[in-house]
Amino acid sequence: MIASEGKGRLLGKVAFISGIGRGIGRTAAQLFAAEGATVFGCDVDVTTAEETVSLVRDAGGTITCLAPVDLGQSEGARAWIDAGIAEHGRLDILYNNAGSARFGPIEAVTDEDWRFTLRNELDLVMWTTRAAWPHLAARGGSAVVNVGSISAIRGHVLMGQSAHSATKGALVALTVQHAAEGSPHRIRVNAVSPGPIETPALRGLIGDDAVEVPIPLGRPGRPEDVVRAALFLTSDDAEWITGVNLVVDGGFSVIQGAQTVAVAAR
Ligand SMILES: NC(=O)c1ccc[n+]([C@@H]2O[C@H](COP(=O)([O-])OP(=O)(O)OC[C@H]3O[C@@H](n4cnc5c(N)ncnc54)[C@H](O)[C@@H]3O)[C@@H](O)[C@H]2O)c1
After folding, report:
1. Are 93 and 16 in contact (CB under 8 A)?
2. Which tens digit of pLDDT belongs to each residue from 241-264?
3. What is the Å distance from ligand 1's center to 121 Cα?
4. By three-state DSSP, how is residue 205 classified?
5. CATH number at residue 59
6. CA 244–ligand 1 middle distance (angstroms)
7. From the CB of 202, is ligand 1 less than 6 Å away?
8. Is any ligand 1 atom within 6 A of the Cβ of residue 99?
9. In terms of Cα–Cα distance, which of 135, 56, 61 is closest to 94?
10. In the predicted model, is pLDDT for residue 185 greater than 60?
């Protein structure tokens, strides 16, 4: 925990966080609740979502969640937002964390892989934000954070990621447009773009063995690195910041010549 953590920076805020079942989303539920937010989460996986709810409550946080819900269907996204509004009457923060992608070299990408990734990384953000929009506008002074990736700005020679790069690039663009449309309503919309973060999703990508990655700041990314950035962007500390894409990658995307560090799944 860093010095400013646990000081109630989100006291009085209702934060909707998608994909709380594992990885960065679980840490988001924990840290947002630790800062005083009332968290309303969701996940397509009931078991892991319930585990997160227990972890947050055991630490004294306030959280409820809807699971299973599939945000890739617009009805699912609307059901999640409607359920949270029915319970809390408002929403101050929307953290569009949930996502799932399929990777592979260009020639091996099937139509289904492509559509799966667009549905589960891009559609779900649009459906969720669209459903939340009137409530965010009614609140005034509300905040959205989308999760991009360095894949939006940097290609990879060895890892085929056409669909993932396309969706994350689109999310950075969507962030700017939503920031524009949100500004008359004082809805701030920003993005965080992580580099390689040690999560279960990364295990699916790299397998059980660690990979060597040139990360200038000398260690792999942790979920809390991303969540702290999202927390800042959605807190009142960032009340004059909208439309930015905050890259959280230990310098990976902008500094050449760094020594490699071993990155593995948690
Ligand atoms: N881990 C990394 O290295 C990394 C890097 C860049 C960006 N990101 C982004 O960060 C976010 C979180 O990544 P993570 O590594 O924690 O992933 P993860 O797979 O560990 O967790 C994602 C969670 O979202 C849920 N989810 C997926 N699709 C859903 C849907 N349609 N409806 C409801 N819930 C759904 C999953 O069940 C899971 O609990 C994603 O948007 C991902 O693209 C991660």
Report:
1. yes
2. 999 999 999 999 999 999 999 998
3. 9
4. helix
5. 3.40.50.720
6. 21
7. yes
8. yes
9. 135
10. yes
Which stretches of the chain are DSSP H helices?
23-34, 46-58, 74-88, 111-117, 124-139, 162-182, 200-206, 223-234
Decide if pLDDT at 1 tops 70.
no
| Average confidence score pLDDT of the chain | 95
| C-alpha distance from residue 265 to each of 122, 210, 214 (Å) | 24, 7, 16
| 264 in any annotated domain | no
- Residue 148: CB within 6 Å of ligand 1? no
Task: Confirm whether 111 is domain-assigned.
Answer: yes
Count of domains in the chain? 1
The C-alpha atoms of residue 2 and residue 74 are separated, in whole angstroms, by 38
* Containing structural domain, residue 152: 14-201+222-257
The answer to whether 230 and 244 are in contact (CB under 8 A) is no
Which residues are CB-contacts of 253 (< 8 A; sequence separation ≥ 6)?
A: 150, 153, 154, 195, 247
